[in-house]
Amino acid sequence: MxxxxxxxxxxxxxxxxxxxxxxxxxxxxxxxxxxxxxxxYFVARLDGEVVGFCGYKILSPTDAKTELMVVDPKCRGxxxxxxxxxxxxxxxxxxxxxxxxxxxxxxxxxxxYKKHFGYREVGKLDKVHEYSDPGIDQWTxxxxxLDQWDKNRKKGD
Length: 157
Description:
- By secondary structure, this protein is of the alpha+beta class.
- The protein has a single domain (3-155), classed as 3-Layer(aba) Sandwich (Aminopeptidase), CATH 3.40.630.30.
- Helices cover 29% and strands 32% of the residues.
- The chain has helices at 13-22, 80-94, 107-117, 146-155; strands at residues 3-7, 41-46, 49-58, 63-71, 99-104, 120-126, 138-145.
- The protein has a 7-stranded mixed β-sheet, sandwiched between helices.
């Protein structure tokens, strides 16, 4: 198996929207996701097939927000989500971003961000649409200091 994380290309968009629909996150444009910042998106290719993607949006010279991340259900557990998240965090850090905000609803996703990337909870937001899990009506807002994350991973924490 060959896994490659690279910048998304225009021809990847149909597959990205298929993955979004699988995850019930395809309501774009909407109040919650008015647009997609394609220039800040990455795809995961497993043996040439797009099996995941992620993106982010720059909010200010030092702050950013993750936009979306989905991994094909048949490929979960292979570390693809970890590699996608790590790649977008590296890109933001290289661009001078220090503070990163992420909204998540699934308890497993929230735990993933905390455990592997040092996020902490900073608030809750009511969902506007039935994004992701329709049984969960709020997003948990998480925040991480990218400089601290980078120091910790270099130390092996």
